[in-house]
């Protein structure tokens, strides 16, 4: 403690270096957590948590109302939306575009994806319920140069050609922007099909229980897949991103801890005579080594605690500011969140302590190996 108190400038620099590294880590980790939370919110909002498709060898789900009744009985299911999807060619004033045209029940689709609430640029998703109406994705509307009130021609081999009035345009920022939605009845008339669908979207209260719910549905013979099966690369990409970011932040703290090693090395050089005197008075090599290791640990834990307090305070402040950014392809402004994980507030100060003591091992060992006679001579 005498070394720490008398070398105020060096102590401040060592503690400050570790503290700055820990503060940066806490802030960046909170930003990372907030970013992942935002990504998951967007994905879970738009994508179905469970997708149910026909049995093997079948093109459609025939007894879908009975199936939907069963799905509703599964605990955790909060929304179910049937859909009849088909390829279609839309044309307007010489512009032609091939799209996936999906027949839906507007209220039920909105309950699963919230397209009608958050992603409509113009018009109303519920407008497709009244007759031959269509809602276009932004990309499709742009390529057709079609606006609300325009009539587009829908056609496809073996399908019934029909005129559809545009009643809305939506923008999700994903591939859906090249699609079109019509009512379930309109899609059946277009295909000449009866009371059938091609898939069912299911939303759950807890997306992480989607695998269990999919297994319950699959037991009936249908092909039910959770979002993890539908988008396996999604979690893998985020996991790799998280690992690489954590590695960079850990290296930052490791570099900062070597500032403590430098300080401790200087202390050993300056206190050579004092070390020799202690050893001449009977202090063992183990005790000398312990003194310098404890000093390294004190500097490390002080820097870690200081950085944790600063990093936590800044993260809470930035989160409260509710900064938003508007990406070119994003349908909505994106809220920048700083979410502090309580585990980080414990783990990183302890990591700072461990790295600081590790950085002090060589100076401590060097001090314990001094020859008392040589040390007393300085």
From TrEMBL:
<dbReference type="InterPro" id="IPR003838">
    <property type="entry name" value="ABC3_permease_C"/>
</dbReference>
<dbReference type="Pfam" id="PF02687">
    <property type="entry name" value="FtsX"/>
</dbReference>
<feature type="domain" description="ABC3 transporter permease C-terminal">
    <location>
        <begin position="247"/>
        <end position="372"/>
    </location>
</feature>
<protein>
    <submittedName>
        <fullName>ABC transporter permease</fullName>
    </submittedName>
</protein>
<keyword id="KW-0812">Transmembrane</keyword>
<feature type="transmembrane region" description="Helical">
    <location>
        <begin position="247"/>
        <end position="269"/>
    </location>
</feature>
<dbReference type="InterPro" id="IPR051447">
    <property type="entry name" value="Lipoprotein-release_system"/>
</dbReference>
<dbReference type="InterPro" id="IPR025857">
    <property type="entry name" value="MacB_PCD"/>
</dbReference>
<feature type="transmembrane region" description="Helical">
    <location>
        <begin position="12"/>
        <end position="32"/>
    </location>
</feature>
<dbReference type="Pfam" id="PF12704">
    <property type="entry name" value="MacB_PCD"/>
</dbReference>
<keyword id="KW-0472">Membrane</keyword>
<feature type="transmembrane region" description="Helical">
    <location>
        <begin position="334"/>
        <end position="362"/>
    </location>
</feature>
<feature type="transmembrane region" description="Helical">
    <location>
        <begin position="290"/>
        <end position="314"/>
    </location>
</feature>
<feature type="domain" description="MacB-like periplasmic core">
    <location>
        <begin position="11"/>
        <end position="219"/>
    </location>
</feature>
<keyword id="KW-1133">Transmembrane helix</keyword>
<keyword id="KW-1003">Cell membrane</keyword>
